Amino acid sequence: MNFDFDTLVIGAGLAGATAARRLAEDGGRRVLLVEQRPHIGGNAYDCLDEAGILVHQYGPHIFHTNDQQVFQFLSRFTDWRDYQHKVLANVYGQLMPVPFNLHSLAIAFDEEKAARLEKKLIDTFGAERKVTILELRQNTDPEIAELADYVYEHIFVHYTMKQWGTTPEQIDPNTTARVPVFLSRDDRYFQDKYQGVPAQGYTSMVAAMLDHPNITLHLDTDARSLITLGDEHLFFQGEPFSGTVIYTGAVDELFACRFGRLPYRTLDFQFETHPVEWYQTCATVNYTVDQPYTRITEFKHLSGQIKKDCTTIVKELSRAYTGAEGEIPYYAIINPENNALYERYAQLTRRYPNFHLVGRLAEYKYYNMDAIVARSLSLCDELLK
Ligand SMILES: Cc1cc2nc3c(=O)[nH]c(=O)nc-3n(C[C@H](O)[C@H](O)[C@H](O)COP(=O)(O)OP(=O)(O)OC[C@H]3O[C@@H](n4cnc5c(N)ncnc54)[C@H](O)[C@@H]3O)c2cc1C
Question: Distance, CA 14 to ligand 1 centroid (Å)?
C-alpha cells in the first residue's frame, strides 16, 4: 500500500470519524483512516435488512444529548428524525414504563394503593423528581420502602443479572442505589434537550463526516497488520512514523493480550422479521423478570418507516466475552481489578508521544455516542493548539 498521510486514525466508529473529520478539516491534516470491519460507523452502523427495514446491526442506538456543541457538530452531517425513546418493562406479561414512574405505579398496584403512594411520594420528595431506590428504602414509611423492594425485584435485579451474568450479591450496591423512580408522568426514557435518530441513519451520517478530500479510508484493514510498536518508536509498514496516531480499538489486543484479556460482556443479536405491521407498541420492551433475552427492540419505531406488511425486531442475549473469532466486546466490566489491568496496557502506549487512546474500547469505558463525540472533539482541540 502506498500512502501519503501525516495522521493515522484507527477505527471508523464515532470516535475515529469525529477525529478524522476535525483534524482533516480544521488542522489540514492528511488523514489515513483504517477500519477492520467491512463498513464504517462502528457499533452505531445501520443498514437495510432483506425486508427493507433499517436495522442497527450492533443493537439499537438512540441519540440523546444536552451538549449543544456535539449536537451542532453532528447536525452538519445529518438531519434528524425527532424521536423520543420509550421503553416498557414486561413484568410477567404486564407492561409498564421504565424508568419506573407514576404511570408504572398505577399499573403495578391497585388504584387506591397507587393513589396513596403517589401522594406520599410527591409530598415527601416533590413532583418531577428522580428518586433513587436507596432514598426510598431509607424512608421511614413502610409503604415507600416497600415500593423500593418492588422496583428492585421486578425491574432491576433479574434484568441486571442477565445483563452482567452476576448474582444479586455480586451487584455493586452503588449501582443498586442509583436505580431511579421518576415521580412524573413523562414516559420518555431520556429527558435530554436534543434527542432523535439521524434521518437517513447513522451510517449515512458517518459517511458524510468522512466525505472530505483530506481523508482516505481503508476498510477491511486491521491496523495491527500495518503498525509495529517498537521499544521506543512506532513503525508504519516497517518505517518509523512520527505523525499523530489515534487508536480507537481494544488496547489489550494491540499488545497481543500479554497481561491477559480485558474482561467484557458480549451480546448475541437474534433478528426476526414478522409478517405483521407492528410487533410491540413501543421501540423497546425490557424483559425484567423472565426470558433469557434482556430486551426486544422493533426498528420501525426508530426509523419511522411506513411498512404495513412486515416488521423486524431484535432480541439481545448477553454473555461473557471470550475473545473467540467474530465475537465483539461490547460492555467493559468496570471494577478496580479490571481498571488496574487496563492501566498496565495504557501505560505501554505512553512511550509513544503522538499515540492517543480514544473510544469505548481504547479507554475501557462506557461512552454514549454524544460523550464519545465530545471526547474526540476535545482531544482534537488539544492536538490543534
Ligand atoms: C448494544 C449497545 C447499544 C447502545 N446504544 C446506545 C444508545 O442508544 N445511545 C448512545 O448514545 N450510545 C449507545 N451505545 C454506545 C455507542 O455504541 C458508543 O458510544 C459508540 O459506538 C462508541 O464509538 P467508538 O468509536 O468509541 O467505538 P466503536 O463504535 O466500537 O468503534 C471502534 C471501531 O474501531 C474498529 N477497530 C478496532 N480495532 C481495530 C484495528 N485493530 N484496526 C482497525 N479497526 C479497528 C472497530 O471495528 C470499530 O469499528 C450503545 C452501545 C451498545 C453496545
Answer: 7
Q: How far out from the chain centre does Cα 354 lie? A: 27
- The predicted pLDDT at position 1 comes to 56
How far apart are the C-alpha atoms of 278 and 312, rounded to whole Å?
A: 9
Task: Say whether 56 sits in a helix, a strand or coil.
Answer: strand
For the chain, domain boundaries? 7-84+198-263+332-383, 98-182
- CATH fold of 7-84+198-263+332-383, please? Rossmann fold (3.40.50)
pTM tops 0.70: yes
Q: Which three cell numbers stand for residue 366?
A: 462506557
Q: Examine the pLDDT at 2 and tell me if it is beyond 80.
A: no
Q: Which of 58, 248, 377 to mutate to test the pocket of ligand 1 (most atoms within 8 A of CB)?
A: 248
DSSP tag of 98: E
State which ligand 1 atom lies nearest to the alpha carbon of 11: 34
Ligand 1, residue 360: give the atom nearest the CA: 26
> Given ligand 1 and candidates 64, 255, 356, 369, which is best to mutate, with the most ligand atoms within 8 Å of its CB?
369
Give which of 36, 28, 56 is closest to 369, Cα–Cα: 56
Which pLDDT score, from 0 to 100, does residue 174 have? 76
Task: Report the b/e string of 7-23 with b at 16+ CB within 10 A.
Answer: bbbbbbbbbbbbbbbbb
Looking at residue 3, what is its pLDDT?
A: 66
User: Is pLDDT above 70 for 259?
Assistant: yes
Q: How far is the CA of 44 from the centre of ligand 1 (A)?
A: 6
For residue 290, the SS3 value is: coil
Report residue 196 as a C-alpha cell. Answer: 432523535
Tell me phi and psi for residue 240, to 5 degrees: -55, 135
Ligand 1 centroid, distance to 110 Cα (angstroms): 43
Q: Is the CB of 330 under 6 A from ligand 1?
A: yes
CA distance 229 to 247: 13
Q: Quick count: other Cβ atoms within 10 Å of Cβ 256? A: 8
**pLDDT at residue 169, as a whole number:** 82
Any atom of ligand 1 within 6 Å of the Cβ of 357: no
Q: For a substitution probing ligand 1, which of 360, 366, 376, 377 has the most ligand atoms within 8 Å of its CB? A: 360
Nearest to 106 by CA among 121, 120, 117: 117
Phi-psi group of 138: left, alpha or beta (phi > 0 → left; psi -120 to 50 → alpha; rest → beta): alpha
